[in-house]
Amino acid sequence: MTAAFVWTPSGSRPLDELLAARQACRVEGCAVVTTNGCFDLLHPGHVRFLQQARALGEVLIVGLNSDESVRQLKGPGRPLLGQEDRAAMLAALRCVDHVVIFAQPLANELLALLRPDIHCKGGDYTAEALPEAGVVRQGGGQLRILPFAAGYSTTGLLGAIREGRPPAAG
Question: Whose CA, among 30, 42, 47, 76, lies 20 to 30 Å from 96?
Answer without folding.
Answer: 76
